[in-house]
Design goal:
The complex is a heterodimer. Chain A is of the alpha/beta class. Chain A has helices at 11-22, 84-93, 108-125, 154-167, 172-185, 233-247, 267-283, 314-321, and strands spanning 27-30, 35-38, 48-55, 66-67, 72-78, 100-105, 129-134, 186-192, 212-215, 226-229, 254-261, 287-294, 304-311, 324-326, 330-331. Chain A is 32% helix and 24% strand. In chain A, a hairpin with a 4-residue loop joins strand 1 (27-30) and strand 2 (35-38). The longest helix of chain A is centred in the middle third of the chain and has 18 residues, at 108-125. Chain B has a single domain, classed as DhaL domain (Serine Threonine Protein Phosphatase 5, Tetratricopeptide repeat, Alpha Horseshoe). The model of chain B has no long low-confidence stretch (mean pLDDT 94). Chain B is mostly helical. Chain B starts with a helix and ends with a helix. The chains are: A alpha/beta, B mainly alpha. Chain A binds chain B through residues 54, 76-85, 107-109, 112-113, 115-116, 139-140, 142, 145-147, 150, 198, 200-201, 205-206, 218, 220-223, 225, and chain B through 27, 31, 33-37, 40-41, 44, 72-82, 117-118, 168-173, 175-178, 180.
Amino acid sequence: MKKLINDATAVVNDSLVGFELAHSDIVRVDHELQVVYRLDAPRQGKVGVISGGGSGHEPLHGGFVGYGMLDAACAGAVFTSPVPDQILAATKGVDGGAGVLHIVKNYTGDIMNFEMAAEIANAETGVAVETVVVDDDVAVQDSLYTAGRRGVGLTVLLEKIVGAAAESGADLASLVALAHRVNGAGRSMGMALTSCTPPEKGSPIFELGDDEMEVGIGIHGEPGRERRPVAPAKEVAAMLVEPILADLDFRGADVIAFVNGMGGSPLIELYLMYAEVAKILEASGVRVARSLVGPYITSLEMAGCSVTLLKADDEMIKLWDAPVQTAGLRWGR
Amino acid sequence: MALDLAAAARWTARFAALIEENKQYLIDLDAQIGDADHGANLDRGMKKVMELDVTGFASPGDYLKKVGMTLVSTVGGASGPLYGTFFLRLGAAWPEEGDAAGLGAALRAGLEGIQARGKAVVGDKTMVDALAPAVDAYDAAAGSGTGPALAAAAAACAAGRDATIPLVARKGRASYLGERSAGHQDPGATSVTLLLDAAAETLG
């Protein structure tokens, strides 16, 4: 294992120290509980929007804390959901009297820990907590016999859109409805060219040959659905986009198209992939209204990418365009 | 043997030692069908449990409840809420008189807590596949006393653990693999067998 670290057990803490120093105009960090707060949280009268999850997906979620997006993010250990204490502190810390929205990616551990925290928060302070679960990964087909579809790339788009609505003063019930609409209208599919090494494990999470790729991965280094020989980018793009288009009818729709890097693939490859994705979308009668290309929800140093398409109505586009000031996404102010 | 505070502390200490010894083994099992964090997370949690000052607790039940809260607060993932809920319910139901039937009821309360939190049933390829037959075996042997009952429970737990190997996972991250999860031993069923082994060694 070659990593820029001091101590494999202190990576999350050490990284949060640097994150706070680098973005002290946007966030403050509770280092004991590993919670990233927006500098001006709690905002009176505004619904608090929080998320969280295992570390190793940076900039998700801490990098999306700030004006127009999240009020707080809880950082778990690498690839491990945060614990209820963290989520409870974040919930109380962003409660401005209008309730708190939990945005949770659909993983068994995340669901259980957020659920315990929401129960305790409500019992202790009476704060209204609503939870929306993101489950956009079409790689998981048989959701009746599994823990359900995973929450992946759509999480970034949902946090931006719902965060913008919260910033504009939407109430808790409307935010929940909006989040459900976004989750219902977005789909993702990912692939890996290489595995990744969690610092405490010290070796790759799965073995992948030099001439192999894994299609249908999640974001925690879980092995995917299918292992295939490495193929040209245009074929990889088809392997990712076609299952998405087969799962939800995007024809004639305006979409936000998101090509995400898994952490180890350079932008030169991600833009090349975006060109291939755009070609397929055009041929399929899908109009790209907005796009996002880059590593926003990663899996440590894994090489590979994912594609997310969101069928976006006018309100979602308007909220997407609204100003945002976070470490990971910034425009309009 | 009395099921007093010292006994409860011996049990958790032995479990912590077994988890430390088997940390890499659990990580490797989890890497096959999960995300390779089970060993490190449980080890971190049990090390925190070992920092508790046992003499500060009024009863074994109070101590075990604190063990549960500590695990919930430090383990994360699915294991934190599941092991945490187990110890919380176990502590709440811990028998005041150290009788064999009472310990069986406490173990069942722990199992029911895990099932309420995780919604898993036998056959889903989870810790429930090992713990549920263990609690049944304990009850069946409880008439012979705590020692034989715990020995029977540990054996049934190990058999349940081994029986997870051919199963296709239906809960947790392993379920994403579908058929590819078959042929691998479930890490949660493995760690809960260490918990029952520790119980048989220290409470029997």
